[in-house]
Amino acid sequence: MTRNKRKPSYHKASCEKTPNFSGQHFLHHPGTIEDIVNCAKLSREDVVIELGAGKGALTTRLVQKAGKVLAIEYDPKLVERLIRKTSSYPNISIIQQDILKLRFPKEKFVVVSNIPYAITTPIMKLLLAPASSGLEKGMIVMEKGAARRFTSASIRSDYVLYWRMFFDLQMGRTLPRGSFTPPPNVDSVVLVVKRRTTPIIPYKHHSLFKRFAEWVMRHPDVPLNMVLKSIFTPPQIKQLRRRAELDADMSVSMLDEWKWGEIFLTMIQVVPKPFWPKPSRHSRKKR
């Protein structure tokens, strides 16, 4: 692959305002980097995307393991440094770009990255869009608090519920603060992401499920029965509770992704379309 350095299409002032630099802590410890790369189990068949390549400590190990590496970095000085550091590797493209303005390929790829902590959730929303991203697996370094929210047994966010229909998210090892420059004030972990071989719901329903997740997660602490009554008739609820072994008095947040998948699939089978959850105002504005 030919080396590719894209000039950013932003003015200098916008570079100073971009959120990408906030919360960025560069990995430097060789042992930690080696562990992350080894756990990714890369092969020469893999296309790897590194988001926030920074000073290139992780990048130089990725190019030795993967078939192709796309290193994304916004800071022009760091881009020049990356070009010098990886000049002997023909299988890397260095792309100067704002992470949040990337369009991820629909073809299969792997992500191994130490992402800027301040924009963790926006990055994950782009990565884990099942229909527009070809992400197959990932090893993503992030703040432990964010990883805990994404993997918790208690699901309190519509986007986390949506992701978990299509991806398995597991919290990996905790990384020593001394592995970073500057050391973060919070604990860091590796989030392990794997696309489900068989998604909990079919991909063709992903847009509808996103709307459904926004609806049911509006009030995660209310009893499940309140949400069910807004969609199903009493006889349908009775049958659903019996078949799915649901406790209607438990809070919405205590259901796992598998139970929500069963509720959703039941909805599209037995509930007429006019009674399905409507798009939120936020969703309509985005369109």
UniProtKB/TrEMBL annotation:
Taxonomic superkingdom: Bacteria
Molecular-function GO terms, alphabetical: RNA binding; rRNA (adenine-N6,N6-)-dimethyltransferase activity
Binding site for S-adenosyl-L-methionine: H25, L27, G52, E73, D98, N114
SUPFAM superfamilies in the record: S-adenosyl-L-methionine-dependent methyltransferases
Alphabetical list of InterPro entries matching this protein: KsgA/Erm, rRNA_Ade_diMease-like_C, rRNA_Ade_Mease_Trfase_CS, rRNA_Ade_methylase_Trfase_N, SAM-dependent_MTases_sf
Domain Ribosomal RNA adenine methylase transferase N-terminal: residue ranges: 32-197
Keywords, sorted A to Z: Methyltransferase, RNA-binding, S-adenosyl-L-methionine, Transferase
Family as reported in the entry's similarity comment: Belongs to the class I-like SAM-binding methyltransferase superfamily. rRNA adenine N(6)-methyltransferase family.
Protein name: rRNA adenine N-6-methyltransferase
